[in-house]
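WARN no homologs supplied; continuing
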Amino acid sequence: MSEVARGVGERGELVLRRRGDDGALELRVNGVFVMDDRETSSEELLASVALSGSPSRLLVGGLGLGYTVRTLLADDGVREVVVAEIEPELVQWMRDGVVPSVLDDPRVSVVVGDVRDVVGREEADSLDGILLDVDNGPDFLVYDENARIYESSFLALCKEKLRADGVLTVWSSSASSALETAVRAVFGRCEVRPVPVELQGRDETYYVYQASS
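OK structure emitted
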């Protein structure tokens, strides 16, 4: 295992490292595994679901290693992607080329800040999709304050910003009945998509929660 980059901010420590066994680039936050560049199918599904309605303008909460944004940009119908990322180190690593960048596409604008604030500044009915992948899900949080992202009040704010038939997708590392209930309470329905993944030799399941305005 070799360290590629390290950053310390007000929320703790971010470490980017290269695994010796499979060569994957791995991101850890405060010692907690967040993602790598070998198993990206769930991030890609998060984007693919949001693309189902031929969207033009989308907002992504969580830059990560860029795979959600990269999948959105592969669709020529997408005209604008706003990315909210609270960790400035992640943005800088991508701008410096430490991580393959998606930020040089003119359709992308990145805002360093809390996704709740970024969504709150959007006009009502201005987005075709909101994609939330800012933590490991409501039941295994890296930052405790992110619990509010999965609550009905913020989900209702997301719904207000979505156009008719706009899509909300939420990533979670585990099944969460509380999240499903909250999404269903706001949107009237919630589709839960399990995503089987292989994580460093282990079979795991991630989840994508989907609803439409």
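The mean pLDDT is 95.
OK
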